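User: Fold this; tokens only.

Assistant: Input:
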Amino acid sequence: MVENTPRETPGIAGFASKSFGTRERRTGDILEKTFTYTVKAGQLLPIDLIVGFEDNDPTGEIVPATYNADPDLAVKPIGALTASVDTSAAAGGACTIDVARTGSWNPNYMVWHDSFDTEAKRKLAFEGSPSPTQVMIQAVPYDNTADVPVELKSTADLTKA
């Protein structure tokens, strides 16, 4: 994250920068490949949200992926949103969006449904996901931003439109 602060001296153009490093979704060399899908209407979804097909039907619409001990009741993850999306009635309803289905991702950077409440659930989330999903969940071995507070992202504060 780079924070730009105006210089103290009036009349001097420019900004002083304080660099604290960056946090990125990618943690490896696996190329990200995206596919375009329809997002179910009535949702407000953030970028990097882990998503799946409604009812695990590959012809279905995109919804947040969920964990359940009974795999038949879970929404199996297939990838992550590449942008935020608002499919509320006010925003026009269902729309299409690119979903990244391949890559090596930092689990602390991604936005997970609250049912993925442990590191183990997140690490194994993509096991058995349908093809062409090829996602590896891998935390970074070091953090160059240790002095910057990290907030784990979750969907607890999201509201449905």
